[in-house]
Amino acid sequence: MLTINEIFYSIQGESTFTGRPCVFVRLTACDLRCAWCDTPYAFTEGRKMSIDEVVTAVQGYDCPLVELTGGEPLLQPGVYALMDRLLSLGRTVVVETGGHISLERVPAAVIKVMDVKCPGSGESARNDWDNLARLGPLDEVKFVVKDRADYEYAREVIVRHDLASRVGAVLISPVHGVLELRPLAEWMLADHLSARLQVQLHKYIWGAEVRGV
Ligand code: SF4
Asked: Contact 117/98 with Cβ under 8 angstroms?
């Protein structure tokens, strides 16, 4: 059984899959409390569903792309069986994770979009640095930055770990409504940073406060 906060069909708003129709499975619970978290309703709200029920709901949308998100989706052991089932059905499976839980059990065919938490989140001490070695050329690393200090932290990690040559994409996203895109873009250009500036596209389409999109 899994505890599921919501399952919905929308336009992917983040990662290199941005803009593509996608089914989202949001799993309940998170053991982090990022200062800028935009899904706190997923900390506790949810209902029990069997893996069969989740798969049936996903199949109802007739969409090849599925994202497992949260909350923190890797907190529930049943998520690995769900990944296997979705892969066996030919779905492209993406998992969005906070980066503090080992990726060891995630099947290689699942595309991992892993956060590295910056100091402004209040959770940077939880980063599991060993996870960087568990990422492959199809996986992505995401930094959510709220100010210049966060940007400099991200830049240092990107350079020190040579992330741009080790993973499929390095994403830098401003905290929506806190850091403007323009200064972040200018910092990246000034540094010739090997990273991709991203917005949370769904917030521009549907509004920042709308759930289930
Ligand atoms: S890891 Fe994600 S769900 Fe958990 S507190 Fe941070 S932003 Fe929110």
From this structure: yes
